[in-house]
Structure formats: C-alpha cells, structure tokens
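REQUEST ID: PR-0412
SUBMITTED BY: lab tech R.K.
PRIORITY: routine
TASK: structure prediction, single protein chain
INPUT:
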Amino acid sequence: MAWLKRNAQENASSAAAAQAAGEGSACGGEMQVPAASAEVAAKRNRRKRETDVAASILTWVVWALIFVYSLSLLALYGWVVMSSLKNTYAWMVDSFGFPVEVTLENYVTAFESLKVTVFTDAGQKEVYLEMLLLNSFAYLVGCGFVATVAPCVMAYAASKFNFAFNKVIDGIVIVTMILPIIGALPSEIEMARTLGLYGNFPGMYFMKFMFLGANYLYFKSAFKGVPDDFSEAAKVDGASQFRVMFQINLPMVSNIFFIIFLLQMIGFWGDWQTPMIYLPYNPTVAYALYDVQFSTTLPLSFKPVQLAACVLGSIPTLIAFIFFKNKIMGGLAFGGLKG
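STATUS: complete
OUTPUT:
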C-alpha cells in the first residue's frame, strides 16, 4: 500500500508540474501576441488617419466648389431681379448698379405683352400668355408622366422577371447614356412628319414614351430592393401579374415615382428647344422666353422687360421647390435615389 501511495503522489506532482508549464507557456504567448498585434494596430490606425485626412480635404474642396458655383448662380439671379426693377433711365446710366427707383412696371408690361408669333398655312397669329401657359402645362404634365411611366414599367419587367434579354436592355441603356447620338434630328423630324406625330401633343407624348436614361436605373434599383415575399403571397391568393404590379410593387416605389415625375416636369417647364422644333404651332412659355430676346419692337425689346419676363418664368419652378423641397431632398442621395 505504501508504494501505491508513493506512486499517486508522484503522479500528482507530475500533473501539477505539467499544468504549471502549460500555464507558463500560455502566459508567455499572451505576453508576445499583444506586442505583435499592437504594431499592426498602430499601422492600421495610422493608415486610417491618413485616409480620413485625405477624404476630409477632398470633401472640403468639393463643398467649396459647390458653394462657389451656387453663389455664382444666386448672384446672377439676383442681378436679373435687380435689373428687372429699373426704369429706362437707370438701365441706360448703369446697367450693373442698384436701381435708384424701384418700379414694377416692367413686370406688368412683360405679363401683358409676352407673345409668340406663329406662322401657319392660314397665315400668322399671335399666341399670348394665357395660351402659352396652357400649352406649357399640357406639355410638361403629359410628357413628364409618360417619360416617368416608361422607365418604371421597363425597370419592373427587367427586375422582377428573369430572362436573358435583361442584360441586353441594361447594356442599351448604359451605351445610350455614354455615347451621344449626333445627327439624328433631321431623320427624327422626317419620321415624325411621316407618322403624323409632328406638331401635336399626342405625337409628342408618343415620342417621349421611352425608357432610356438614368431613370431606368433608379427604378430598377428600387424594384430590386422590394422583397418578393409580398408578390409570392399575392400570387398564392390568385392575384394576376398586373394586380401584383399595380397594387403591391408600385406602391412600394411611389415616393421615387413622384420625385422623378416632379423633376421631369421641372425639366420640361424650362425646355424651349423641343417645342420649338416639334410643336411650332403650340409654343410654350419657355419658348416665348427664348424668343423674346430677339424682339426688335418696344416694349419687349427693352432689356429690363425681358429680364422681368424671365423672373416671371422662374416663379413656378421656385414654388414647386418650396412646396416639395423636403420630398425632393429626402429622396436624393448624392446622385442616386432612395425610397
């Protein structure tokens, strides 16, 4: 029994020694690992600080350029407003100075005299501000709607239905955004005349119903972010594809649809070239503002009256931005759109 007791003590001593050795090696390892990891962490933090400094400098430079650009636009608009308040004498004496006597007569004259001369087969006629406004709203609302619906529908089909032509559509959109199409205007006009699309609003709506452009990419990104669980549940309950599209998926991207529709209308409000080319018998306010600079008869040839007309033409855009600025700025994120 003595030798069994002695063997048990020796085994216990060996186990204690082995445990102590293991703890020692573990402690030694713990003392060595922090030294190596601290150096790596220091290098990583140093690189992060350098990257943060470079990014901060670049951000400040970009914002400074944006501020200077915005300030130049505001200064130019301020000069237009200031000059539109001058009378004839103040304009001829100092066209860049402050008005000595503020007058609103130029705005009244511009509102009453703004017109466009249209030449038709029956002769020439004068289109005044009332009809110019009506043509403008018919142009911007109709074209803005179809130019928003077309990329929305195409983006929905390309994002929710898996077929091989999706990549081809994406490629066509990107290529047409990168490569400018030059020299197609004469053929477009001739084609519009042949198909009966020239000189009328339905034809203009038909030509604007296309999905090419960045709006297609915005809508596709939005539809990709809509989960398919709702659509699958609706299909199980017997919903058709059209019902799934209009009652489930489109409400999910209604915010983006409204933002793009609003931006489209703002862009069409200032578009004078397209109505001048394709709607020569239905001039808009934007085309009238473009045409007034070539006026040679008083009172429209007076520069402060022309500037007052430009200020009047900018009021609808300012009103739209004031009422919808939170929705617009809330949906825009550095050149992209978010729902």
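NOTES: The CA atoms of residues 14 and 20 lie 10 Å apart.
REVIEWED BY: pending
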